[in-house]
Design goal:
The protein is 67% helix and 4% strand. It is mainly α and 231 residues long. A 3-stranded antiparallel beta sheet has the order 1-3-2.
């Protein structure tokens, strides 16, 4: 038996972890918009905690890339520049392509059924004119696809990417793409997955990513590697 010194049982989620999770959710949903400065005094009062666990939580988010630190100014929610959006979708494309290939080797019918629930939620949110629920359902589709891979590392790699993606989806709502088109794109990916047509499934996923990046950052292409110049 290996003896590890100074290791104590963990009985519950730490205060810092709870704060980090709530701040992460607020960033993801847009409650804390890009560029927002986080004031320690105000947040400590809202969470009713001391500054110690609050600082620890915020440093977690700095390490995840969701907050940026500016010398002598403090911490801010990251702004997504065009080059950031391109990079997010470039990384997502690699992760989700790998996840889709794994899913194609799994229980395709079961996976397709779970993805269909997310698409149904998207359609329901559109009917209710609820953009927040629509983005949540859209994100749930991609999260379910990655989880279906059965790869712990792909899931871990995707965690921050999906939070950043939620920020992108808020921007995507301001483009001309209709909800019906978004639902149709997801549905066709499911159909190809269900039939086991790997080439079609990968092509549709690539097209889905390419369409999104073309709307968010016009003039760029994931296929051509045409990333925008950093600002």
């Amino acid at each position: 038996m290996v003896v590890l010194p100074d290791i104590e049982p963990v009985s519950r989620e730490s205060t810092a972890a709870v704060i980090a999770r709530q701040l992460r959710d607020a960033i993801m949903t847009g409650a804390l918009p890009p560029g927002t400065q986080l004031g320690e005094t105000d947040l400590a009062s809202r969470f009713q905690v001391s500054r110690g666990p609050l600082r620890e939580a915020m440093q977690h988010l700095v390490s995840e890339g969701l907050l940026r630190s500016e010398r002598h100014r403090g911490l801010f929610v990251i702004d997504l520049e065009p080059s950031d959006v391109f990079d997010i979708y470039l990384a997502r494309s690699a992760v989700e392509r790998a996840a889709l290939l794994c899913a194609l080797r799994g229980d395709r019918e079961l996976i397709a059924a779970s993805l269909e629930q997310s698409v149904a939620d998207m359609a329901a949110a559109a009917n209710d004119d609820d953009p927040t629920a629509l983005s949540a359902a859209d994100l749930a589709f991609h999260e379910a696809l990655i989880n279906a891979s059965g790869s712990k590392r792909l899931v871990r790699m995707a965690r921050t990417l999906l939070i950043e993606t939620r920020m992108c989806l808020t921007l995507l709502q301001s483009t001309e793409q209709g909800v019906e088109d978004r639902v149709d794109e997801h549905t066709r990916i499911i159909d190809a997955l269900r039939t086991g047509d790997a080439d079609a499934a990968l092509h549709l996923l690539d097209a889905h990513m390419e369409d999104a990046i073309g709307r968010l950052v016009p003039g760029t292409s994931l296929k051509e590697g045409e990333a925008p110049a950093p600002v």
